[in-house]
TrEMBL record:
Gene3D superfamilies: RNA Cap, Translation Initiation Factor Eif4e. Belongs to the UPF0696 family. Pfam families: Bles03. This is Uncharacterized protein.
Amino acid sequence: MEIFIFKLAMSESAAAQASTPTETFDTYWLWARASSRDYVGGPRSGKWMLFYDKSVLDDKWAAVKNLVEQDLLGGLAKCSTAKENPNATSSKSGVIIVYTSDYLDQEEVYRVATVLHEKMEYNKTMYYKTDEQTYAGAYVKNGSKKNHIYRYPLD
C-alpha cells in the first residue's frame, strides 16, 4: 500500500464548498481538508464513520467541514452525496468520514472521536475502520460481520 498526500485542486475545493451533499448527483463524495497542512495517508490510515439521516446530512456536513477547516480533526473528511453508491446500506441515510493518518496512534484516533462526539452531539456509537479494511471490501452490505477496529464511546 502506498503513502499518499491529499491535496484538493482549487477548482475542486471551490466546487465542494458550493455544494451540499443531498443536492450533489455527479460525484460520490464531497471533501474537506485542513488548510494548514496536507493530509498524509498511508498503510495505517483510517476513519471515523458518522451515519446521519439525509434530512440532517447537509447541516452535519457543514459542521464537520468547519471543524476540519479549523484543523480540529484529522485533516481530511468526506461526505456521501445523493449519487447512488453501490456500497451504501441505505438510501435514507448518508455517511460522513473523518480520517486520521495512523490507526495505531490511539491517542490521536480517540482525540478526534472525542471532538466529533462532543461538537457534533453524535448520540450513537461511532465506528473506526482502517483503510486496509476498506480496500479488502469489509462492508456490511458485503456480509462483513465486523468492519471496524475501534468504537466510541467505549462500553
